[in-house]
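Quick one:
INPUT:
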């Protein structure tokens, strides 16, 4: 099993934009910033699909599934890191999980 990472504060969108501007032209830093944003988008998409699966599981009265609960807790923890600690706006409440949310503004306006 891989060694656990130490606790750290997530980068805010403002910090990512600052790194993007400061190191513009450095392909490694640009890829790293893009990877962070891409990963956040993937996690949000996974969360949307999880909500659909969880709702269906409940509607079918299939009881409790430990794996679904553990996944839910991981997603909640990541959501808190993104929204509270990194000061990133949560997705709009009105969007349906089956429809992708509007993309965030570009890293550099």
């Amino acid at each position: 099993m891989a060694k656990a990472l130490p606790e750290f504060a997530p980068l805010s969108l403002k910090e990512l934009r600052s790194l993007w501007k400061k190191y513009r032209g450095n392909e490694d830093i640009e890829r790293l910033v893009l990877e962070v944003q891409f990963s956040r988008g993937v996690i949000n998409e996974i969360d949307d699909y999880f909500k659909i699966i969880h709702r269906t599981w409940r509607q079918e009265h299939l009881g409790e599934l430990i794996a679904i609960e553990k996944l839910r807790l991981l997603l909640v923890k990541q959501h808190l890191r993104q929204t509270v600690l990194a000061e990133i706006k949560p997705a709009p409440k009105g969007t349906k999980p089956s429809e992708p949310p509007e993309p965030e503004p570009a890293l550099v306006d």
